[in-house]
Amino acid sequence: xxxxxxxxxxxxxxxxxxxxxxxxxxxxxxxxxxxxxxxxxxxxxxxxxxxxxxxxxxxxxxxxxxxxxxxxxxxxxxxxxxxxxxxxxxxxxxxxxxxxxxxxxxxxxxxxxxxxxxxxxxxxxxxxxxxxxxxxxxxxxxxxxxxxxxxxxxxxxxxxxxxxxxxxxxxxxxxxxxxxxxxxxxxxxxxxxxxxxxxxxxxxxxxxxxxxxxxxxxxxxxxxxxxxxxxxxxxxxxxxxxxxxxxxxxxxxxxxxxxxxxxxxxxxxxxxxxxxxxxxxxxxxxxxxxxxxxx
Length: 295
Description:
It is rod-shaped, with a radius of gyration of 42 Å.
C-alpha cells in the first residue's frame, strides 16, 4: 500500500512539472558534469536597428526581462565601461555620440554579460567644398567673379550663377529654390554643377543623398538680388529774355550703373516724327550734368 502511495505522488509531480523529476535524475546520472542555474534575467535589444550615419548620435534602447532585474547596466566598448541610463524598472538607454566607425560592444550588470553586438556606421552624404561662379549682366560692365565655399551673396538681378560642388558619399544632389528644384546625379568623381539666372532675392537649399539616405542634411543659403533702378533725369528750361525762341536746357542724370548715351528729343507741331540730338555724357560715372541750347 505504501508503494502505491509513493508511485501516485511521483505520477502527480511528474504530471505537474516533469522538470522537477527529470532534472534531478539528470544530475544524478551525469553527476560528473557542472550544472548552472538559468539566468535570472536576459538582455533584449533590436539588433536589426544597429545602424547609424557617420558622425551622428545613436540611442541604444535596452530591455531587461526576467525575474530579477538589475539596478544598473553598463555598455562595454573600446575597453571602457559606460553607465546606461535607467528609464524605468525594465528599460535602459545609452547614447553613442558622434559615431565615426563601427563599434563592437556588450552589456553587463557586473556579473551577467550579453552577447557581443555590432553598431554599423552608414556613409553620410556630405558637401566637401563648392565654388560659385557669377556671370554678371552685360549692362553693368563688370567681369565675372568666383566665390569659394560662400553660399550667401548679393548680385545684380539677371546674374547667371553656376555652382560647382565637390562631395563625399553623394549619389544625387537637389538644389531647391523658391519656385523650382534642380536635381543632378554625381559624375565619377563626386562632382556636380548646377546653373540658374537670378532675378529675385530668396533662400535656397542644397540637399545631398546616397543609396542609404534620402535628401537630408540641409545646407541653407540666401541670395540677395539687387534690382536695376530706372534712370533719373532732372531738366530745367530757361527762356532767353530777348528772344523767346531761344531756350536753354540744363539738368542731371543718375543711374546705378552709369550711362551709354543721352539724347535730346524734340518735335515741332508741324512735324510727323521726333528728332533727336545726342548730348555728351560720361559713361564712367553714375551721375552727370548736361547742358543744351535750342533755337
